[in-house]
Amino acid sequence: MANKVPCVRAALITDSFSAHQGVEDDDMNFMCLGGRVTGYALSWDLVQIFLNAHFKGAERFKRRLMKVAALEREEKS
Predict the structure, then answer these.
(1) How are beta strands 10-12 and 30-32 bridged, if at all?
(2) Three-state DSSP state, 67
(3) Rounded to an integer, what distance in angstroms lies between the CA atom of residue 22 and that of residue 25?
(4) How far apart are CA 38 and CA 17, in angstroms?
(5) Which of 40, 36, 38 is nearest to 13 (CA)?
(6) How far apart are CA 48 and CA 55, in angstroms?
(7) Along the 77 residues of the chain, how does pLDDT read in single tens digits?
(8) In this structure, which of 1, 10, 20, 44 has its CB flanked by the most CB atoms within 10 Å?
(9) How far apart are CA 27 and CA 61, in angstroms?
């Protein structure tokens, strides 16, 4: 549901790789955690990893984001 909001790029995060890779490659800006399946300690670790990750900004990642933005503009019209 979060990805239906323009400019929100969300993903369900279950492991440390996803927590940083989503930000680094896809500029993810919203993290979803399973409330009943993700323990407190793991949740804390994943949030820290997510917050410390930075978008790499490689050209191929920027092109992917431009495609997403174009789809969002199409849905508005």
Answers:
(1) parallel
(2) helix
(3) 6
(4) 15
(5) 38
(6) 15
(7) 888 888 899 999 999 999 999 999 999 999 999 988 999 999 999 999 999 999 998 898 899 888 888 888 887 76
(8) 20
(9) 8
**Which tokens is 15 given?**
């492991």
The token duo for 6 is 């323009």
Instruction: Pull the structure tokens for residue 33.
Output: 């955690």
**C-alpha to C-alpha distance for 25 and 17, rounded to whole angstroms:** 12
Question: Taking a C-beta distance cutoff of 8 angstroms, is the pair 34, 15 a contact?
Answer: no
Residue that the structure tokens 């508005």 belong to? 76
The whole-number pLDDT of residue 52 equals 97
Q: What is the pLDDT of residue 41?
A: 95
| Residue of 46, 58, 59, 57 lying closest to 20 (CA atoms) | 46
